[in-house]
Amino acid sequence: MQQLKVQGERWFPSESSFFEEMQQLWGDWYCDSEIGKLKAVLMHRPGQEIEGITKENFAEFRFRAPIQPVKARAQQDALADIYKQHGVQVHYVEGQRTDRPNAMFMRDLMFMTPEGAIVCRPAIPARRGEEKAVAKTLASLGVPIIKTINGDGYFEGASAMWINRETVIIGTGSRTNESGAQQVEGELRNIGVKNIIRTQIPFGSIHLDGYMNMVDQNKLLIFPWHVTYNCAKQLLDWGIELIEFTDINELKQGMGMNFVVLEPGKLVMPSGNPYTKTLLESHGIEVIEAEMDEIMNGWGAIHCMTAFLKREPV
């Protein structure tokens, strides 16, 4: 009887890229901008963890005031309804810790790319550990995790912002250190990002979205006194229009810049910011308003609560 020859040593690997196989093997997940048509998001509906925020302890959790749980949940539910009305799939984190009241601010916990998610490592002890439930939820959805911030690095998702497929801003400051920024930059360059704008997030802001946010293709709303010259110069050189937002009260108290773009030139923002709304509309941006006053007692709003899972390429 002739013996079969085992040819295992002669197998050759597939030369297909991860991206080419991603939809077939993982699912339809993608993000390379802040303004492409929004198709899927990840949120955390506030649960038991916000029940105990009182006058005595709210500052311990970096809140600006106590929070009314029922009203906060209703405001987030209303935002989710706006997303759904615009064809956005809303997914929720499962199994989140019950001792982390900041967990509703999902933008800090992951940063989405064309090839999957970067799972973040929060800077402050009151948030450490939230990322575990996020990672488990991403895995259950089939979203690839291309990096988890480790070592001595810390990085929060709102410390990075897509300008376009080839360009990302990364800011360092109180919530992202150099080690975390380098880890993110390495992964972005690995998937084809050519231009990394490194900038320092100033004292008085903790994330980039505290003083800049994309509103349309090649249009960036900025609070000019927090944007460094080098950052602004690079953006201008690449043809990005900088729209200057100068109302400090609406920026800090009304969180007028804490919005999410639904599609190019259309966004949802916190209500009660007439200057912001007028400025945006004067630049051709369609504005939808949502009540966020209770959510804002946690020093966050719409952009903070929303982690992108899929945006259509622009």
Automatic annotation (TrEMBL):
Alphabetic keyword roster: Transferase
Q: Please cite one Gene Ontology biological process associated with this protein.
A: L-arginine deiminase pathway
Determine the domain of life of the protein's source.
Bacteria
Molecular functions (GO terms): arginine deiminase activity; transferase activity
Q: Which Pfam families match?
A: DDAH_eukar
Q: Which PANTHER family match?
A: ARGININE DEIMINASE (PTHR47271)
Identification of the protein by name: Amidinotransferase
